[in-house]
Amino acid sequence: DVGANVGAFSLFVAARRPRALVVAVEPQREVCARLAFHARINGCAIRVCECALSDREGTAQLFVDPRDKARASIRMLGGDSAQERREIATTTLLALCRQERLERIDALKVDAGGADDLILDRFFDTAPAALRPRLLIIDACAPTSAALARGLVALGYRALASSRAKHVFSRPEE
Hints:
Blueprint: H1 8-16, E1 22-25, H2 29-41, E2 46-49, E3 52-53, E4 58-65, E5 68-73, E6 84-91, H3 93-99, E7 107-110, H4 116-126, E8 135-139, H5 144-154, E9 158-162, E10 166-170
Parallel strand pairs: 1-2, 3-6, 7-8
Antiparallel strand pairs: 4-5, 4-6, 8-10, 9-10
């Protein structure tokens, strides 16, 4: 669950698949604490990783909307120069998979505030095919979403559903 925020998607999956390994990635320390609290009081085993995913390992500036902490990205958010900036650790999706010893990804939700293409392009360029998620849920707006959709179709994904900002893709069994 990339861009997990307070864990709504992570909790949904963990409650329905209690034996699944759920990994929640969230770069904001205070939001991670809430996510961990929600997992604990709901009795869900969710691994919380406090970092941002990117196309490289290192650090980056996280831009946070001071009026809405859920709006955060390693890409500058549009429309307002009054954004808070924080230095955060970054890693790649492939490096996170290796760290967590994942051999497969059944479902992946990515809501990275406009940095979805940075994360996914790098992942699909470098990860073994066995790690490609069966189900992919992306929260991305145009023009990023159109380019991502074309790339995913080229990799064999099929669009299942789409709205203005949410896109769901599946990959057939190999």
